[in-house]
Design a protein that fits this description.
The protein is α/β, with parallel strands linked by helices and 256 residues long. The protein has helices at 40-47, 70-74, 92-98, 112-124, 140-153, 170-187, 198-204, 222-225, 228-235; strands spanning 2-9, 15-23, 29-33, 55-60, 63-64, 77-80, 158-162, 190-194, 207-212, 215-220, 238-244, 248-255. α3 (92-98) runs parallel beside α5. Bound molecules: adenosine-5'-diphosphate and magnesium ion (MG). Adenosine-5'-diphosphate binds at residues 10, 12, 16, 34, 36-42.
């Protein structure tokens, strides 16, 4: 996926993305970092054709995304937004099945492939035992996994996750990150996500895109992107950079 000179403003005409240029490498995990309001969600919105940029293009497999038919694009891109809501009494299975809709015509019955994909999505998100439970009886971490399962049932090569670990306690944060890693490594998905935790971003990403005020400040290998200077420039915080034999590089925030 190529992101070419994207500039974007909402109705208020304020430029929220300013000449964003990047490449999303297939089969890898790319994480967007940056402070609140820096344009991370807006960029995901443009990359998934939710918002049309005033300038620039997003290209998938040699074709601009606004040239794809909606259903065609839905077979390429799965998205889990920052906020998700479903009728609270809906079951896990039912919601995950909605992921299959891009593959169906209005009246086509459930196919074997639909069932296979729904089963796979439920299994690899560890929700088998919750399959028939209502969404609102699940924990936050489980609910987050249901949304991911729905996107997985969609059977797309690209998966976009906006802050998938927010509002989860630390165990469930890592549970989601391990799932993301497995989806990339074992199933070849290309993942683009937004994370707040810099250490998790370093640990789980092949590439980082650091944003500030709608601009890409720096991008590339996490170990090269995350520096004391970058953390000062982008977040206005002081950090120390450390190395651990097991996890590799990490930061320690020292203050403002
Ligand atoms: P992030 O995800 O990095 O926190 P966003 O992409 O949500 O940032 O927002 C980037 C900027 O665009 C912010 O200043 C935000 O207030 C503004 N913004 C977000 N959504 C809208 C909208 N629908 N209309 C107008 N401005 C918006
Ligand atoms: Mg956001």
């Amino acid at each position: 996926m190529e992101i070419k000179h994207i500039s974007f403003a909402y109705q208020d005409k304020v430029r929220r993305l300013d000449n964003v240029e990047a490449e999303i490498t297939k089969g890898q995990i790319t994480t967007i970092i940056g402070p609140n309001g820096s344009g991370k969600s807006t960029l995901l919105g443009v990359l998934t054709n939710n918002y049309q940029p005033q300038e620039g293009q997003v290209i998938i497999d040699g074709k601009a995304i606004n040239k794809y038919k909606p259903k065609e694009l839905a077979k390429k891109l799965g998205v889990v937004h920052q906020q998700n809501s479903a009728p609270s009494d809906m079951t896990v299975e039912k919601l995950v099945y909605y992921g299959r809709l891009p593959h169906k015509n209005t009246f086509s019955p459930q196919s074997e492939k639909d069932e296979q994909m729904v089963n796979w999505a439920i299994e690899c998100t560890g929700l088998s035992e919750k399959r028939h439970d209502a969404i609102d009886t699940l924990s936050g971490g489980q609910q987050q996994r249901v949304w991911i399962a729905m996107a997985l049932a969609q059977d797309t090569p690209f998966l976009f996750l906006d802050e998938p670990t927010s509002n989860l306690d630390i165990y469930y944060q890592y549970e989601i990150l391990e799932l993301v890693k497995q989806l990339c490594e074992a199933h070849g998905l290309t993942i683009v996500m937004v994370l707040h935790d810099i250490n998790q971003a370093i640990q789980y990403s092949h590439n980082l895109i650091a944003m500030k005020q709608g601009k890409v400040v720096v991008k590339g290998n996490p170990k090269l992107v995350v520096t004391k200077q970058l953390m000062r420039e982008v977040y206005n915080v002081n950090v120390a950079i450390k190395n651990d034999d097991d996890v590799g590089m990490y930061i320690v925030p020292l203050g403002i």
